[in-house]
Predict the structure.
Amino acid sequence: MRLLTAAALSMMAATYALGAGDSQCQSCHGAEKESAFHASVHASMGCTGCHTDIKGFPHPEKVAKVDCGSCHAAAKTALASSVHANASQQPCVSCHGDSHAIVPVKDPKSAVYPSNLPRTCGTCHGDKKFAQQHNLPDVYSQYMDSIHGFALTRDGLLVAATCSSCHGAHDILSPSNAKSRTNRANVPDTCGTCHQGIEKQYMAGIHGQLLQAGMPDAPVCTSCHTAHQIGDIRQASFQMKTNATCGNCHKERYGTYRDTFHAHVSALGYEETAHCWDCHKAHDILPASDAKSTVAPANLIQTCGKCHAGANAGFVKYSPHADAHNGKAYPMLHLTAIFMNLLLGSVLGFFALHTLLWFIRARFERPEPEGRKS
Amino acid sequence: MSSETTYYTRFTPAQRLMHAVMMITFLGLAATGLPLRFNAAGWSQALARAVGGFASILFIHKFCAVVMSLDFMAHVVDIGYRTLVKKQWWLLWGPNSMVPRLKDLKDFIGQLRWLVWMGPKPKFDRYTYWEKLDYWGVFWGMAIIGISGYAMWFAPFFSRLVPGSMLNIALLIHGEEALLACGWIFVIHFFNEHLRPHNFPMDVTVFTGTQTEAEFRERHPEEYARAAATGELAQMRTAAPAAWATPASRLVGSAAVIFGIVLIVLTAEAFLRY
């Protein structure tokens, strides 16, 4: 069928190219436009292939708007129900560029070729005023500074995710739409199109399990990685932020982590120290009650042993989340903390007063007899 | 400096060296330990960056800890040798010993009364009660902070002896006891020995090892009277410190005091804020 259409098109092309029609158009519309058009994907269509209402020469002053959908029916249908349905401008050319110079998507000159696409979408979505008007995040600059943006623009990786990889092209839906690729529940599958291995790990982990169980605010990829500002996980700058990221939800655990040594040295810029995911893993996180979990009691020696050579059964009794305020869970630690506070308060408090009184008293004392200072 | 000034030995060269090593390593430990304790403070992070990150901080901390431990052990060995071998039992008991006596309690109460104009100034002996507190505070502090510190340093080994939950307690004690030590040294000790009126701006006895006749009579009247009675005073007489020794001691001592006070001010600020 496709072959037949192609054959028919090329026959039409032969007719139009040689036909009197185009040269008649050229007599008014100039040769320059003609040459761009001849290099375009639609060259074979000739002028009247799209401007179907023009029947004669010269044509009436007013001509109908070209309906791309008469050929691109699937795109037209998809667009009609998408967020761009009510775009005030001609929606096709907003993205595909000059209507007379449209080249195939696979042509590096195409406005929707992967390496050009972010800039094309950025025409609107990189415009702060536009973003404000439509209550959208200003995503263009965020994307360009993300690992996906760098891969595309710096490394020229055509497989790197661009706008359409996650949002689709003609059928872009609002994230609030359950059918949207970027709807919370669909995010893992969308990212999983490329990151298949990670998606499998995620789905096996507690976060993925909760999502599949229908928990509405179960964390998905973007909850931790963000959607457009995705960092490079190998970079220290990314790793140093991860604890706070987990802490967005796990507030209590983050608080107790910060009371212990791992967090202390992390705050001073020591990257090698244990972050949440060093012990709990990043994607296939499992609760300690699960025997397969890295933090299940039976697996602790191995988990701690990744960094601490010589970790043993006694060693893993150390609590990386100890909370001195929690007397029920950590009675010894709690009592020690109270004792130390009392000791510090009383000793320093008493002797600070002693010192202060001494300072005052000494002012009224006769000066020390002439000594070394003479 | 008048030529008639008489000088007496108060500290031996070994004691002065021990104090100097203690002073330097204590400042090193405090400067690298406080940023860990108050890691959220901007100055902590700036200091960590300035010395080359946490790895450098930990190296300096451990280095100073080992040197201080050696200083501590040298002292313990010295005391052991002088008592057990040389039979200098007066080191362990009596007016010239660091071991507290009933007189220290009486002096302490007397001093409290004097502080509020309710009595005369007590007549102190060789070591005053606050000097003994300095000594035993540091002694106890080194034991507690040292043991908890080495426990964390050699955690896998330590946790073969006691459960790992003790490491949580070790971290807590290490930090709190160190905070107490910093508060004590940088506020109480500095004031008592160096900053209070009469000693201001710097008492250099511990650096030069000598005190003048007037200082001796004023500060340690009991010891002076006893030494005079037994004729020991003549043996304690010594030459005036070298011309450079006093200004140099003042410089070094003041630098240490200023360094400590800067640290304690930063600490107090961080303590109140975080």
Observations:
- The two ends of chain B are 50 Å apart (CA to CA).
- Chain B touches chain A through 60 residues (CB under 8 Å).
- The longest strand of chain B covers residues 7-9.
